[in-house]
Design a protein that fits this description.
With 173 residues, the chain is an alpha/beta fold. It has a single domain, classed as Rossmann fold, CATH 3.40.50. It is built from 4 helices and 9 strands, in the order E-E-H-H-E-H-E-E-E-E-H-E-E. The strands form 2 sheets. A 7-stranded mixed beta sheet has the order 5-6-4-3-7-8-9, sandwiched between helices. Strands 1-2 form a two-stranded antiparallel sheet. Helix 2 crosses helix 3.
């Protein structure tokens, strides 16, 4: 593993997107090639020998990590987007938010029955979107091997919503 201090590349932005929220900004990490490479390798590390066939990247920063993670693991990339953003026939899952619902979807041919899938995103907070993506993969018959995140906001308890055996995070706040 690299000696890059990944936490030092995460910028704290207070009161974004609204007062009282402390946003963890990964753009400094993304702009540094050594930090980005170290982050991708750290996220991939526990899944190198898991036979991952698809990495599912969740909109939108999950795409940023999903693509290089898929390359690192020798897998393909599947993207999970908000409703209405994909051009082909889709399958979807609707999930509850604090005030309402939201829907995520993927193409109907994005994963196949029995494929080993790793869900990836930059950050897990409350876990609703990640849990919906896990359901989406399972609806398609995929074997969800685990979930991998660069950052976990542990106090928000998102991992409790994930019905998977392996959850890996690199940086915890």
């Amino acid at each position: 593993m690299s000696s890059v201090d990944l936490r030092s590349f995460i910028r704290d932005v207070p009161d974004f997107p609204k007062p009282g929220i402390l946003f963890r900004d990964i753009t400094p990490l993304l702009s540094d090639p050594d930090a980005l490479q170290a982050a991708v390798r750290a996220v991939a590390a526990p899944f190198r020998d898991a036979g991952i066939e698809r990495v599912m990247g969740i909109e939108s920063r999950g795409f940023i990590f999903g693509a290089p993670l898929a390359l690192e693991l020798g897998a393909g990339l599947t993207i999970v987007r908000k409703q209405g953003k994909l051009p082909f026939e889709t399958t979807s899952v609707t999930y509850d938010l604090e005030y309402g619902t939201d829907t995520v979807e993927m193409h109907v041919d994005a994963v196949k029955q029995g494929q080993k899938v790793l869900l990836a995103d930059d950050l897990i907070a409350t876990g609703g979107t990640a849990a919906a993506a896990v359901k989406l993969a399972r609806q398609a018959g995929a074997d969800v091997v685990g979930c991998a995140f660069l950052i976990e906001l542990a106090a928000l308890g998102g991992r409790k919503l994930l019905d998977v055996d392996r959850i890996h995070t690199v940086i915890e706040y």
